Amino acid sequence: MTGALLHDRSGRCLCGAVGVQMRDLGADLHACHCDSCRRNNGAMSMTVMVPADALTVTGAEWVETYVSSEWASRSFCRRCGSSLWFRMNQPGSDYYLSAGLLDDLSDMRLAHEIYFDSKPDAWGFAGPTEKLTGAEVEALFADPASDPANPA
Ligand SMILES: [Zn+2]
Ligand SMILES: [Zn+2]
């Protein structure tokens, strides 16, 4: 996470059945261009990283979770279909919460793009971002000493 002010932020799915409250959230947004995120979100995913102990979820009975691979799961609202978050399957792992849920995205910035080599030519972001290929991301996850806060 880069040096930005930490804010408490709130959000919700489209229908409002699922609400989220985040404590001390940084300003960094993460985009992932991998095939799974593209299919799940309609294009790339845009997320904020929230440690499990900094997130409060209301309406949890509306949360449906799809195990999308042997290492990760994706959750969505059972009523409206909004994409909620992506998580590694280990208990207590961080939430990569869909940035679009947030009520207020002011002062936030796109910091990282991962699986950049999977990005279709049809779209791209103009701003300066740190870009990692899929192989670079997988190398980070394979190394337990690396910082898991950066790749989304
Ligand atoms: Zn909903
Ligand atoms: Zn992805």
The span between the termini is: 12 Å
Strands, total number: 11
Architecture in CATH?
Beta Complex
Specify the structural class: mainly beta
What fraction of the residues are assigned to beta strands by DSSP? 35-45%
Q: Return the domain count.
A: 1
Residue runs with pLDDT of under 50 for 5 or more positions: none
Number of helices: 2
Question: How would you write the strand order of the largest sheet?
Answer: 6-7-8-9-4-3-10-11
CATH topology name: Metal Binding Protein, Guanine Nucleotide Exchange Factor, Chain A
Q: Indicate the mean pLDDT.
A: 91
Bound molecules: zinc ion
Q: Rg to the nearest angstrom?
A: 15 Å
The ordered string of helix (H) and strand (E) elements is EEEHEEEEEEEEH
Description:
Helix content is 11%, strand content 38%. The radius of gyration is 15 Å and the shape is globular. It has one domain: Metal Binding Protein, Guanine Nucleotide Exchange Factor, Chain A. The protein is built from 2 helices and 11 strands. The chain has helices spanning 35-41, 134-142; strands at 7-12, 19-25, 28-32, 45-50, 55-58, 63-67, 72-77, 83-88, 95-98, 109-114, 130-132. The chain is mainly beta. Strands 6-7-8-9-4-3-10-11 form an 8-stranded mixed beta sheet. Strands 1-2-5 form a 3-stranded antiparallel beta sheet, with no helix packed on it. It binds zinc ion (2 copies).
